């Protein structure tokens, strides 16, 4: 349905005023929600300090949310002929993502973690050194690869038709007729033994040069895909399982004697961790020694669970098990996440990996909801898209909790340091390219004829050097395999073991 008739004219193109107003209002609301998220999660230690990282977090979260909702905007712009220059808008938005992922967020992260309040100049210098190295590597890679493979290899079909002009019943469109017989590789349509027309199909490759901006988007997408399939694959299985475990192991009311006993046990764990911290020293997170860094990652995991267990004990005693409404809501989220994960997996298996797909799956849901009321389709699309982002962050956290290959960056209400926010923000920025490309592929029927489909479905998908991975659905298969293996592993070993409990590190 048309949202509204185009009522204004800008730059010679009709602009849908209703669509423009909704876009502006939604952007403002997303910015306010990002600011509230920062205030809600930030640690007391960061209040009234680290303004640069805070501005970066608010802008980055807003940019990520805007990118997710730009796809429904692109679809609405196509349906209503809304007049938005969507291709230019996509290029601007993803140029900002690239700048955030390569320049801004790493610099802020390096600056924040160079902790030396007595030498601010040294902090700037340390952050600048790391950032220069990052920029040189990425810009060199970008320019060199663009000069060598700055083109897309798009498969095209060349149709050659020969029509029998003496025939009395010639199809109106010889190329469009499907009732052809294959005669030695040539498709022939006959009538009464006479050939009406013949059709030969020659497949070839159209080499199309891409702009440096499009190639940068493709390069960032390719790099982001590896993180996307790993962490989203893990998160699709881990998020529903952990939510249901959290509900089943929710705090139960305890008496004073049990509270004192649990407090003593946690105090003993805290003392052991203090001894480990004194051995590691203040610079363990910067150590180049693999064993030291692994011990540091284990230490962070143990501290995380100690704080989490302490909160559960306090809730069990002081709040008599906690607010039942919150508990029921947590259980609802667990059930909802099961449905979202299962529907995502089924959709990918049926619609993406089977060619041609027997069903449109979620595409039909979004299209039908759009036909009822456009906002319903946006809500459904946003639900499935933002769920992938939650799975991304959950997958990264789960990998850090289990394998200690990377330090964990938990998001805790009122206790999240800015370096954790910045790291998670960087992860969102670098994978936003892959997320959009994945959605263009997964929702091809919903996004057809949009600017996003033109950019990601044709130019980036067929970029030379990267197209083999996309043609053969390598990333999609990896996503499914990782999700399945993670689900089996977590069902067999659902509990996260507290690190440093049984070893001598």
Note the main attributes of this structure.
single chain, alpha+beta, four-stranded antiparallel beta sheet, 6 strands, 9% strand, 505 residues, disordered N terminus, two-stranded antiparallel sheet
Summarize the helix and strand pattern as letters. EEHHHHEEEEHHHHHHHHHHH
Structural class: alpha+beta
The poorly predicted ranges are 1-12, 175-185, 187-194
Number of DSSP strands?
Answer: 6
Principal-axis shape: globular
Strand content: 5-15%
* Strand order in space, largest sheet: 3-6-5-4
Mean pLDDT: 85
> What is the CA-atom radius of gyration, in angstroms?
27 Å
**Number of H- or I-type helical stretches:** 15
Largest sheet: 4 strands, antiparallel
Relative helix content: 55-70%
End-to-end gap: 64 Å
Could you characterize what this model shows?
This protein is of the alpha+beta class and 505 residues long. The chain has helices spanning 17-41, 51-80, 86-113, 120-149, 212-248, 256-280, 290-318, 324-352, 362-372, 374-403, 418-442, 444-447, 451-460, 467-471, 474-492, and strands at residues 8-10, 13-15, 151-163, 181-183, 186-191, 194-209. It has a four-stranded antiparallel sheet with strand order 3-6-5-4, covered by helices on one side. A two-stranded antiparallel ribbon has the order 1-2. β4 (181-183) and β5 (186-191) form a beta hairpin. α1 runs antiparallel to α2 and α3 (86-113) runs antiparallel to α4 (120-149). The longest helix is centred in the middle third of the chain and has 37 residues, at 212-248. The termini are far apart. 32% of the residues are buried. Residues 1-12, 175-185 and 187-194 have low confidence and may be disordered.
